Amino acid sequence: MSKSIPEPATAGIESKDTTVGSVFVSNYPPYSTWNEATVPEVHDALTEKPRKDALLGLYMHIPFCRKRCKFCYFRVYTDKNSSEIDTYLNALAKEIEIYSRQPAIADRPLHFVYFGGGTPSYISVKHLTNLVDRVKKVMPWDAAEEIAFECEPGTLTQKKLEAIKHIGVTRLSLGVENLNDDILAENGRAHLSKEVYRIAPWIQELDFEQVNMDLISGMIGETWESWRDTVKKTIELNPDCVTVYQLELPFNTVYSKDILGGDALPVADWKLKREWHQYAFEQFEKAGYAQSSAYTVIKKDQPSKFVYRDAVWQGNDMIGTGVASFSHLSGIHFQNAPSWGDYLGNLEEDKLPVYRALKLTEAEKLTREMILQLKLGKIRPSYFRAKFNADILKIYAEAYQKLQNDGMLVIKSKSDEIQLTERGLLRVDSLLPEFYAPEYQNTRYT
Asked: Block means of pLDDT (10 residues each) for the chain, length 446 residues?
């Protein structure tokens, strides 16, 4: 495990500038520790009975996009034709069919389904309905609490939105990111703002249970004037919830490669991005929204829920299907083959395309759940005592004391609560390495 390139995600580096290697923390231990040697344990876990207390979710990775955003770090393809998409979706359905026959999965109801990307809304109505028909035959989701679907505005038509609604989608998530066309173009987004306004009446008419809009503070070219305008226009569009991310620079983005190659890009520093983030949340609160995590606001008169996020952050089981997808089952994390050829090749041979994994210790399970749930802004020590028989205020006493002294959180022992301050919420990802085991600090995250 190399320690030659400390990253903010594992070192807690609090630099002024947005440095290459910064990431949104989505798991623990770091992905760089996952390995091929553990893969047989995944297959063993699939043949065993599932945990009685674990819910099950299904993630489907649709890795196609019209363009690759310059800040994107996901496995996506912009050069696949209809025939290649058909081949991929057939393989995806076959993968799910294989999983559905495994003892750890068979006959378990789905708690949630998530269509992620890439751009799930990129594929045709025919491709989508064919995929869903095959999947629902082996893993029906009529009783699932949430069906989430990511969209890029420019790929949506009225007919496609009707098809998305028809397959049972309850949470429609729009990757708007910004409402300034110059900023969208500079950052490599495929859509322009007019496409957001074109689809808005159709979405409203279909009356999805929840419509989310994603924004990113700190995109290249952002100014105070443009950000205020984007926030104002977002409020006017009246989504049920809004998710605001701060621009990160993982190693494999176009922007990161440009910077490492010597280009001087005008990337907003962390102070400015956090000011923009804070401003947005203040405006949303004035408009009738309440904060439900470090990144999300939701209308005050609606139930605050994001089933996929909460299930994953509480350590439940999720089967991630598709190229490079991540799964979690019975305390084992695993990832699919990250290349197109390896993913399809495995499934042509009727084999699951798992290529690396990590089995967590009880201590790692505890740390993982705790740091991810801290992103909600508030946790209860009693939850971890009940689930892990562990006192997090003792186990992580030094880290909690340091963060409290730094003004990042408040420990309210009488009310059984640890609450991040506003300052802590705005920089929560940089705080999490305080809780990492020593062997995972100052390592590569991915």
From this structure: 58 64 84 95 94 93 90 86 97 98 95 96 97 97 96 97 98 97 93 96 96 95 96 98 88 76 79 94 96 94 87 96 96 96 98 97 97 96 97 97 96 94 93 94 82
Nearest to 315 by CA among 385, 373, 369: 369
Fold that domain 30-310 belongs to in CATH: TIM Barrel (3.20.20)
Model pTM score = 0.94
Pair type for strands 171-177 and 210-217: parallel
Q: Which two tokens stand for residue 212?
A: 């989310």
Rg (CA), the chain: 21
Edge-to-edge order in the sheet of strand 409-412: 378-379, 417-420, 409-412
pLDDT per position as a tens digit, 9-64: 776 656 666 676 667 889 999 999 999 999 999 999 999 988 888 999 999 999 99
Cα separation, 290 vs 284, in Å, equals 8
Instruction: For the chain, give every residue range classified as CATH 1.10.10.920.
Output: 1-17+362-446
Query: How far separated are the first and last CA of the chain, in Å rounded?
Result: 11
Q: What are the residues facing 326 on neighbouring strands?
A: 335
Alpha-helical runs (H) found in 220-291: 224-237, 254-260, 270-286
The pLDDT tens digits for 231-288 are 999 999 999 999 999 988 877 788 778 777 777 778 888 889 999 999 999 999 999 9
Q: What is the pLDDT of residue 196?
A: 97
Residue 204 amino acid letter: Q
Class (C level, CATH) for 1-17+362-446: mainly alpha
Looking at the chain, the domain(s) classified CATH 3.20.20.70 span 30-310
